[in-house]
What does this fold into?
Amino acid sequence: MNHRFLLAVLIGCLLESETSATASDAVRVVVWDEQQPSQKQAYPTFLGEYITNYLKRQPGLEVNSVSIDHPEKGLSDRVLDNCDVLIWWGHVRNGDISVEEAERVVRRLKQGKLQLIALHSAHWATPFVMAMHQRAKTDAMRNVPSEERKKAKVQFVGEIVRRAPKRDAVLTPQAEFGKNDDGSTLIRITRPNCCFPAYRNDGKPSEIRTLLPDHPIAKGIPVKFTLPHTEMYDEPFHVPAPDDVVFEEHWEMGEHFRSGAVWKIGKGKVFYFRPGHETHAVYTEPLPMKIVENAVRWLGTKR
It folds into this structure.
């Protein structure tokens, strides 16, 4: 009898240990959403909640949803310290997140403690904008001789603005190199605008082309597929050159956009996925959601 009891206890301990190991291996995902009421024109819940519910049904993911109306705007240390991948949807309230608040995200991103997925209009989300500032600084520093980098100073020129650039505007970011009075290198960087000269929210279809079919984010995604309803964005996108452009999007009137791009930011990564507007049910469709899931798994994998 005692032997049976001990065996049962041992089996129970092994099962509990296996469950704990599985839980610890799960990718911890936080979906941040400003939750505009207009989202409910296309989604049965808020868009962030819809994405959260989809990801919760996928194995190996531990998913939570937060909003701008949560304590500390959903960016508390408790939230961010328990997050491997942060998915961000922002639009009309992008400017409500301060640079200081966004730096909580970017600091962890640079340390490799957190990865960022920015969706559609989150091109102007403050964490994405500040991540692009960091990448612009890194890119500029590569042009400085290694022995001079420690003393080099970086200045960002102008203010952060959320206004579309003109078609003939100089592409940003742009770096100019000079010298300080002490002879050290001075780098003046025109801030990345993080926008593009044209957009059109007419709900017309687009064709997404997979440029890097072997990339983990493109796993199971066809070489071409159509989104029946979406907003149009047109190049040039005023951001630092990506490390990878996984997807490119095209419209019948000739516009195109780098619609799935990856940047390294310190030890972390950012993936920008363009399809949207919140009044189009893009994220109820299987292929966009498969791309989001692929990105979560790739970014969240411990290497």
About this structure: The first strand starts at residue 27 and ends at 33.
